[in-house]
């Protein structure tokens, strides 16, 4: 497949003429074409992954259990679903809509159909159309199968290799990529896709809006609101087209869309908003995660002690990884970037840990981590990457009785070098919690084995995937 958004020759001519005449408005002659990206998954895989992710999301975030509000959002959602153009309908998909009791202006949709709309998004919208706009954008990611398309692309580069091998209860693959969760303000819960995907979701979203009888410009207006509410501070806008550009693009597209007849009636929407006002203030998603009981603040936060490990098991509050990264040079051969709210904690000279405060401590005289990355190199007797890795992993298993492989080895890359990745499950010896351990290995020129190990509790797994991927991607080996 070629580029997904085609700029026809006629459009180029049109732009040239427009430039020459200066006063002519910028116009294309037709709707932008959108097509699917390469995807090695079947639509049924989207459904399966989305279902797992939905279960996880509902564990993490409180649903607003108000049948009137939910029924209303579901009704608007199904109207949009019915307006998805035929070429982007999938009989396997099951779209449904739930409301999360959180104040962020946000919504996210998962592969195969589950969608979660934040209470804050409904409250921030002035009309039903504005609320529907964000939903139509999110629906478009699902209909275009962006989650699994992105996983397909990432897998080609090995970025998700280890993650995709993981089955079962935790979020794997596309969802790990898709449902990026962090604490950096508005927009972080939006599926984190490339600009190209975002533009496609805007354009298809505008089309769905028009088909459903909404003004497609409402979608653009909502992005402006998100910006006005400080959406520029988080990672969202740094990686995505600015709302101003999106606004212009959506409005441009809207000229070619015929909005189906529908009476603009906001009475029901306003009644729902009124109903929401009766509830106590909702927390932000970050607050929910912080106070959610997973890391109960027991008045036991460790003061900053530099590299001295507290002589207690880790059970402080763990801050979510910052989206700003700091670069470190290690062992004369390695460069790596990690979130700037993580600390560098050296281990035994050949390995280094990076971990957030509250995520490390000691138990039985041993240092224990709950969240973080361990990077190092080790001597092996094997010049073959697979054999050297087997040797390394079994050595780790000897010291950690609960460490079990949960995937096969996957081929991947570290700094363009062949690498292997494997996912393991473990029970953390300090906290007793189930955790996911991912190991990536590559060979150094001197035959040593480079390794990068990530550790995170199952319950936090999908909050950390983006961070771990960025760390792995940042590694430079200069041996
Ligand atoms: Zn999006």
* Class of secondary structure makeup: alpha+beta
User: Which ligands occur here?
Assistant: zinc ion
Radius of gyration: 24 Å
Average pLDDT over all residues: 75
- Share of helix among residues? 25-40%
| Sheet having the most strands | 8 strands, antiparallel
Distance between the termini: 38 Å
Poorly predicted segments: 1-28, 157-191, 231-239, 293-311
List key phrases describing it:
three-stranded mixed beta sheet, binds zinc ion, 19% strand, alpha+beta, elongated, disordered N terminus, 479 residues, 16 helices, eight-stranded antiparallel beta sheet
Written description of the protein model:
There is one protein chain. With 479 residues, this protein is α+β, with helices and mostly antiparallel strands. The chain has helices at 9-21, 43-60, 67-82, 119-124, 128-143, 146-156, 161-164, 173-178, 195-211, 217-228, 235-239, 243-254, 267-277, 285-291, 385-399, 461-474, and strands at residues 96-100, 107-109, 114-118, 325-330, 334-339, 342-346, 351-356, 360-363, 366-369, 372-378, 404-405, 410-414, 417-427, 434-443, 449-457, 476-477. Strands 6, 7, 10, 11, 12, 13, 14 and 15 form an eight-stranded antiparallel beta sheet that branches. A three-stranded mixed beta sheet has the order 1-3-2, sandwiched between helices. The two termini are 38 Å apart. The structure holds zinc ion. Zinc ion binds next to helix 5 and helix 9.
């Amino acid at each position: 497949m070629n580029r997904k958004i085609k700029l026809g020759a006629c459009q180029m001519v049109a732009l040239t003429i427009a430039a020459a005449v200066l006063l002519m408005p910028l116009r294309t002659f037709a709707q932008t074409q959108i097509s699917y990206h390469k995807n090695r998954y079947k639509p049924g895989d989207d459904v399966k992954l989305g279902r797992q992710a939905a279960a996880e999301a509902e564990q993490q975030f409180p649903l607003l259990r108000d049948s009137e509000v939910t029924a209303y959002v579901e009704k608007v959602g199904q109207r949009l679903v019915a307006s998805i153009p035929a070429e982007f309908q999938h009989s396997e998909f099951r779209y449904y809509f739930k409301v999360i009791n959180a104040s962020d202006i946000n919504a996210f949709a998962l592969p195969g159909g589950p969608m979660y709309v934040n209470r804050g998004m409904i409250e921030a919208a002035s009309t039903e159309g504005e609320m529907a706009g964000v939903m139509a954008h999110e629906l478009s990611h699902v209909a275009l199968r962006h989650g699994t398309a992105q996983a397909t692309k990432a897998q080609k580069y090995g970025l998700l290799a280890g993650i995709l091998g993981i089955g079962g209860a935790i979020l794997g693959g596309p969802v790990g990529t898709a449902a990026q969760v962090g604490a950096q303000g508005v927009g972080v819960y939006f599926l984190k896709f490339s600009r190209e995907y975002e533009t496609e979701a805007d354009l298809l979203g505008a089309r769905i809006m028009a088909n459903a009888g909404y003004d497609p410009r409402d979608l653009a207006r909502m992005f402006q609101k998100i910006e006005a509410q400080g959406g520029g501070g988080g990672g969202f806008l740094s990686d995505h087209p600015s709302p101003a550009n999106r606004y212009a693009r959506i409005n441009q597209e809207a000229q070619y869309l015929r909005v189906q007849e529908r009476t603009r009636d906001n009475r029901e929407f306003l009644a729902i908003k009124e109903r929401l006002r009766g509830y106590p203030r909702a927390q932000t998603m970050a607050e929910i995660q912080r106070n959610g009981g997973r890391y109960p603040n027991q008045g036991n936060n460790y003061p900053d002690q530099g590299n001295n490990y507290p002589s207690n098991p880790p059970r402080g509050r763990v801050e979510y990884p910052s989206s700003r990264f700091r670069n470190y040079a290690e062992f004369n051969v390695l460069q790596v970037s990690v979130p700037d709210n993580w600390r560098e904690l050296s281990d035994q000279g050949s390995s280094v840990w990076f971990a957030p405060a509250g995520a490390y401590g000691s138990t039985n005289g041993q240092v224990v981590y709950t969240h973080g990355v361990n990077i190092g190199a080790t001597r092996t007797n094997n010049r073959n990457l697979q054999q050297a890795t087997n040797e390394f992993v079994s050595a780790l298993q000897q010291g950690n009785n609960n460490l079990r492989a949960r995937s096969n080895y996957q081929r991947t890359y570290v700094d363009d070098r062949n690498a292997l990745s494997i996912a393991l499950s473990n029970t953390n010896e300090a906290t007793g919690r189930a955790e996911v351990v991912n190991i990536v290995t590559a060979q150094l020129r001197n035959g040593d084995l480079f390794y990068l190990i990530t550790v995170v509790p199952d319950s936090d797994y999908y909050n950390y995937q983006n961070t771990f991927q960025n760390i792995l991607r940042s590694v430079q080996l200069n041996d």
